[in-house]
Amino acid sequence: MIDSHCHLTDPRLGEQLLDVLARAAAAGVGRMITVGTSLEDDRRCVELCRQLPQVRCAIGIHPNYVAESKLEDVEQIELLQLDGSVVALGETGLDYHYGQETKLRQREFFIRQLELAKKVNRPVVIHCREAVDDTLSILNDFTSVAALFHCFTGTIEEARRIVDAGYYLGFGGAVTFKKSEALRDVAREAPADRFVMETDAPYLTPEPMRKQKINEPAMVMHTAAVVAAARGVDVDEIDRLSTANVQRFFGWG
Ligand SMILES: [Zn+2]
To answer: How far does residue 142's CA lie from ligand 1's centre (Å)?
Structure first.
């Protein structure tokens, strides 16, 4: 299994990284993609990947970090994209839940990063919260750019629009929450070639670990078990599909 989205540079994981990697390997999670959120974090991601062949990274500016970022940072990200460990641009996108007051700036950074993705021919990891309409309408101007809506938590109608537009869905810990019946319907209905498994660690710890621990890549197996149950298949099948989809989308593996 590949954890397609985690934040290994977050101190909560970084401080115990060797243990985190060992627990992941023991759980069958041999590889992972760590995702940057700001220029400084992006640099740490690339540095980390140089030491760990089982880790690749996506680098970009997260919508929740646009206030303290500069548009020129995107030029630095263009240089970093040349590193062999970088497999995607992101995470970027729109967050209208936490970012009402930075909406315009988020759009500016999103568009700038999509222009870069188009230029360097990279897939994009999208963070989208309460902003599906605007995200899809902006992506519509970049039809050559492949996109993955990470940690999807929207409605089944939104999922259909995303898949119909040719994009991928990422399923994380939210799928396992008791109240997430509708999200499990999305997981059941998602086309086999359009979804990937992820943790978003250290955030969004899946059930049954939610109360006890910060999230980490090993726990993607709990989420995969819930998606497997929703689809009426075994976990190995989810592993096989997600791994193939990660390899196709990110061109890694
Ligand atoms: Zn993330």
So the answer is: 22
